Amino acid sequence: MRLKITHRTEYHYDQPIRYGLQRLRLTPVSGPLQTVMDWKLTVEGAQEEVRFLDQFGNQTILVSIGGAPQTVSVLAEGEVDTADKAGVFGQHRGFAPLWLYQQDTPLTVRGEGVAALVESLSDGGADLDRLHQLKEAVGKRVAYSSGQTNVATTAEQAIAAGAGVCQDHAHVFCAAARALGFPARYVSGYLLMDGVVEQVASHAWAEAHVPRLGWVAFDAANGISADERYVTVATGRDYRDAMPISGILLGQAEERLEVRITVEQ
């Protein structure tokens, strides 16, 4: 399936900025499940400083901003051919070792909630069966509800609240999969939704590393493994490693953010 994606992010500032630095992870790369046919990243109101592959293999660009009040616009757009392989990405790539994906992070620290979730699963069974069972358990334990959590919400907090968004589902799945002994990683990207072209945010899901298969994707928010409707942009241990745009801003300027995304076949 060929997907056409546009992702526009605009930052509006009300006074001069002393200095700002933003890290952009908005460029997908070709791999076993997708082929990037055409992709362009256009930045206005900021200056590109450097681009590189980070430790997780993500295409990363650093841009700096400063000076008079302005609008910084970041437009990522292009076309990607995708394939349905039941979510199986394959063997591990990148500079980060697999053991790194078994470690807790501030957003995926394992506590009583994760322990209870893991204990609710049936004992034994094949690795894939257990992970699919975990995917379903996460979806039932954390109901999809926007406005209940934010980007700083941890896996334990989402479980306690019993509600969250795709980011929270991915964090809970990663924490629980690690508790089961699987390396797990957070994935950010895009999803072609039925009957919906314009979206308010990018999508997130998780992958677990299974012996002999490699990385396998699980989307607990939608109760499925990733198929041809998914485009991967960045991966990491949690949201902070894979967030589309992150950075720092020095000064007293108030920032207003606008995001517009379209995903269509």
UniProtKB/TrEMBL annotation:
It comes from the Bacteria. Residues 158-222 form the Transglutaminase-like domain. InterPro entries: Bac_transglu_N, Papain-like_cys_pep_sf, Transglutaminase-like. This is Transglutaminase family protein. It comes from Oryzicola mucosus.
